[in-house]
Amino acid sequence: MIGKNILKKLVVLTLAFALVIPVNLRLVAAEDVLGVKADAAILVDSNSGKILFEKNSNTPLPIASMTKMMSEYLVIEAVHNGKISWDQKVTVSEYAHKISQNTGLSNVPLELGGKYTVKELYEAAAIYSANGATIALAELVGGSEKNFVQLMNDKAKKLKLGEVKFVNATGLVNKDLQGMHPEGTSPSDENIMSAKGVAKLAYYLLNDYPEVLETSSIPKKIFQEGQKYPVKMENWNWMLPGLVFEYQGMDGLKTGSTDSAGFCFTGTAERDGQRYISVVMGADSYNSRFSETAKLMDYGFSNFEKITLVEKGQAVKGNKTVKVIKGKEKEVNVVAKDSLTLAVKRGEGKNYKAQIKLSGKNIDEDGNIIAPIKKNTKVGEIIVKSSNKDDLGFITNEKTFDLVVDKDVEKANWFVLTFRAIGSFFGNLWGSIVDGISGLFK
């Protein structure tokens, strides 16, 4: 027989075990309701940056060739700024040539001293993750890969991507760069970012330069078609139409894999005007990064709906007009510059409200607009507020939308301003007299 003391201890241990285990299970469930098999993951509403799901999303991890999204951003930005052009010819350096000849890496072979257009090299990098082509573009935009890496880190800081370290333009581990890695970095270095930071980068890439999808959505293409050394390129994003893991609406964005990073993928898909961004980091196989991405996307499309809090050109409820100082008109409407749309769990739209916050050089300390002011001038922000206790917020922290005036308001002339001042003086004087007389009869 079991002694009373031993029996008592067994009962206590059993109760403790029963109490502790469910709590731990609940904590796990709260962190990963989808059971995503990856080191980190996140799902984001591309329209607003709202986070719909996250797992270990703030931990910096190796990002492999998802790095090339930043390289793409800087190349497209340079084109937009007129620094380079898509049809500009790029001469291949010895460095870019040597890396491009490594068949153990993703590459299109480039001739030493060969000339290729920016567009050709960009497509090779975006579709086929070509490392030599990426280095050639980095050298063009930055003058050297070292300088380009500085641009990458500067842009990461400007976009507030969190804890980030860029050491090269490709996402390779520096040891794979054959001793030619950028000065100031070590052979063991590689690019690091969190899943949230990667999603934020993808968010800005898609919203600042939506044309990125024109290339990322191409399933197959021939590099230098009709030329001396054509190369068949099949997009490493196998979720594109016609490829192995085809997923409805998928049109981007970038895969990546190294021994340390595991298998990674930043995906984006759109259905019926609703676009999501997903990031999977550290999946255990080539295929699983796609199956886990499908799991995230299915969750988004099945469980969330798009709501519009404020339409473009409309006022936030209860905040239609703002007083104007020194203007021909005494009030002006303040409205949303763009429509406020975001994805929320079905049926939970009532938990989200819009509020305005006036700010800027055209606003005085009392919250009045100072004339003159032009139509569509920003006079503050519209802030999304949620009463949902499980809300995960936005990748841009507190999400704001621009608040603008809906028409020009000219400054009133001295004559009008003088009579207004006189009217205000006598109005205040009369008010004081009335108050004084009323006080006599209290």
Layout of helices and strands, plus pairs?
Layout (H helix, E strand, L loop, with lengths): L3 H28 L8 E6 L5 E5 L5 E2 L5 H13 L8 E3 L2 H7 L14 E3 H11 L2 H12 L2 H14 L33 E2 L1 H14 L3 H5 L3 E4 L7 E4 L15 E9 L3 E10 L2 E10 L4 H16 E7 L10 E5 L5 E6 L3 E6 L6 E7 L10 E2 L7 E9 L13 E6 L8 H27 L2
Parallel strand pairs: 13-17
Antiparallel strand pairs: 1-2, 1-11, 3-6, 4-5, 7-8, 9-10, 10-11, 12-15, 13-14, 14-19, 16-18, 18-19
Q: Which structural traits does this protein have?
A:
single chain; alpha+beta; 6-stranded mixed β-sheet; 5-stranded antiparallel β-sheet; disordered N terminus
Description of the molecule:
Helix 5 crosses helix 6. The N terminus and C terminus are likely disordered. A hairpin with a 2-residue loop joins strand 10 and strand 11. The strands form six sheets. Strands 16-18-19-14-13-17 form a six-stranded mixed beta sheet, with no helix packed on it. It is α+β, with helices and mostly antiparallel strands. It starts with a helix and ends with a helix. It is globular and about 70 Å long. The chain contains ten helices and 19 strands.
The ordered string of helix (H) and strand (E) elements is HEEEHEHEHHHEHHEEEEEHEEEEEEEEH
The spatial strand order of the largest sheet comes to: 16-18-19-14-13-17
Number of helices: 10
Helical content class: 25-40%
| Mean pLDDT across every amino acid position | 88
Care to give the gist of this entry?
With 442 residues, the chain is α+β, with helices and mostly antiparallel strands.
